[in-house]
Structure formats: C-alpha cells, structure tokens
Amino acid sequence: MIRNKKAMLFCSQIILTGALITGAPCLASGAEIEVAEEDGTSGSVFGSSATTADSEEVDHSGEGQIHKPSSLEVPDFTSDPDFVDDSTDNTYGYYTIMGDTTVSLAQMTSQYEEHGAEYPSASLKDGGAATIDDFCTIILEEANAEGVRGEVVFEQAMLETGWLQYGGDSGISQYNFAGIGTTGGGVTGVSYPDVRTGIRAQVQHLKAYACEDALNQDLVDTRFDMVTRGSAPYVEWLGQQENPNGGGWAAGSNYGEKLRKLLSDLKAEPHSFLVQFNICKFLWRKLLRTSGQELLQFFG
Fold this sequence. Notes:
Blueprint: H1 2-22, E1 34-36, E2 42-44, H2 105-115, H3 121-124, H4 132-146, H5 150-161, H6 195-210, H7 255-266, H8 271-289, H9 292-299
Antiparallel strand pairs: 1-2
Helix pairs in contact: 2-4, 4-5, 4-6, 5-7
C-alpha cells in the first residue's frame, strides 16, 4: 500500500512538472492515470473519477420517448395447430381490422425483403428499430396490445410510406408511418419521438375507426377524438370514397382495395380470385334475403 502511494505521489509530481513547462495542457486532456489499489479497485491520481450531476451535460435525446411495457408480447397465432384465419369471416367477406394477427413475423419481414426496398436503418435505428425485424416486432407488440390485426398495421405503413422510403409530405424523421395529419398541400402531419410511439398512434387511430372499445394503453394519438368511432370496421371501408358511412382514413380512391391487395400478397392469396369469391358470397346471401323485385332494383 505504501509503495503504491509513493508511486502515485511520484506520478503526480512528474505530471505537475510537465504542466508547468508546457502551460498545463496535459491537465486539460481529460486523461487520468489510474493506479490499482490492493483491494482490486482502481483510483485516480487526481482523486475520484466520478463527476457530480451538476457538471454533467444532461442528455435529452430520449426525452418524450415511450418504451416497451413488460406486458407486451409477440404471439405467433399461426403456429397454433388449431389456428383459423377469421379475418374475413363476416357477412360481406371484408377484411376486419380488429382481431388476432393472422400472419407471422417471418411472413412480414419476407414480404419486405422480397419487395426489394432497402431498410432505412440509419434513419430508424435511433428511434428504436435498427432492422426490419425490430420494426415488425414493434408492430406486432403494439397491435396485439389493442386487439388490432398486426398485418393491417404493417401493410398500411408500407402503403403510406412507400415501403419506408417516404417521398410524400411527411419525412422519415417524424416516425409517422401512416400519414396521420397529412391533409395535403405540403402539410407534414404529426411527428412522434420514436418508432414505437408512431406505430402506437397508428394502431390507436385504426382502433378508433374499427370499433368503440376503450384503449388498453395510454393515448398517444392526438387525433383519436377526431374519428367517428366504429365507422370503418373493415379494411375496405378505410377509404372515404368506399365507406358507406361517409368517413374514412384516406381520401384517395380504392384505398382499401390497395391494402387488400398487399394483404393478399402477404398471405400468398390469388387476389383476383379472392375478390370474385367474396362478391359471389355477397350476392348469394343477398339473393337468399331479398324478393324478386328488390333483386331487379339491385342489378339495375
């Protein structure tokens, strides 16, 4: 112990002598000589290397960000041998927004990779999604937390952002993956502090359209109350022009049909056959419920 202290004193004298000769830049270099103590810990010849809270620069880079709650999971419902895809199990054969996710993480990431777009890791890693696996995992976690189908969230994000390449009114640094608040004319829409918050807002906005159930997580969608709750329970009704209630997510024509095409590709379904099949189901059910005069009026 005495020998170590003598060594410390000798080093201190050498450094102080050098400081006097050179004008003391060596003391401002930030480097410290550490000497091993007998108990295995390390100490500095200048005393404790710990700095006080007042002398540290506060890092605000993560301020406002939300993080994954411990309760969130990424279940793969498709791995269940008794799994049944009920996404279109309704009178119209439309794709329901609420329900279990009917695809796997691997299907989502594979579709992205097969599309050929380069994942923007440099832009999204600071937001918490360095890879497409990270991005899709967050989608599944957030969608499952609210009972929204993860594949709908995924395909809408791909459609709205051009497979995360952007190019529209909003930018990738906004972490807005669904064009929330982009009303045209250069309006950039809402910005979020990280990837998870942006996806959670999208999930909550979809839930607002799809049903009247309360949210399970804290509200982050600032436009949630602007939606007529339950006005678009189906993917096909997300487009304003196709929604019989007059509202909807997007003003462009065939918005829901574009999403259905992406969903069909994701599930490797022959889309044209699927559409024709749903039309036949709809007409058959209508035939069973209506009179001859009503059928004449329906077919015009």
